[in-house]
Amino acid sequence: xxxxxxxxxxxxxxxxxxxxxxxxxxxxxxxxxxxxxxxxxxxxxxxxxxxxxxxxxxxxxxxxxxxxxxxxxxxxxxxxxxxxxxxxxxxxxxxxxxxxxxxxxxxxxxxxxxxxxxxxxxxxxxxxxxxxxxxxxxxxxxxxxxxxxxxxxxxxxxxxxxxxxxxxxxxxxxxxxxxxxxxx
Length: 184
Fold this sequence. Notes:
The protein is an all-alpha fold. The chain has helices at 7-20, 44-67, 71-90, 92-103, 108-132, 145-174. It has 2 domains: 1-34, no CATH class; 44-174, Up-down Bundle (Four Helix Bundle (Hemerythrin (Met), subunit A)). It starts with 6 loop residues before the first helix and ends in a 10-residue tail after the last helix.
């Protein structure tokens, strides 16, 4: 036997070592041959950029509808933004965050930036969901709409700022060879 056997042979080797050391078998022990890092997907940054563009267009459409006093259309677009942002957070953004959390485990500043932007996006997703599903007297009704401009502008600014940090600071760190700060 050459010692370069299969994964099962390696598992048996570790079991044998534990036995020789008088340690009990550890069925829950991590597999030493399996990486604990999420999988790198080269297309993910492009998917994120497309999502950012789509979400930004929805916010811009909503602002234009509001400016034209098309409150029902603005409400419909808010509901669409809410759905799209929630989908983004559980799909592309979640995959990016999982990978980057592992990659940035030795970079506290990068990890804080990542978590901060994700928290900002979750707050906006929650707020847009609440606004889109408001009952009677919703902020899209004509008498309440003038006060609503500041809310829409804050949503737009928060998305723009969060996407800016992700794209300008964190996307460049995603590629395994792009940063010395990343864990190998």
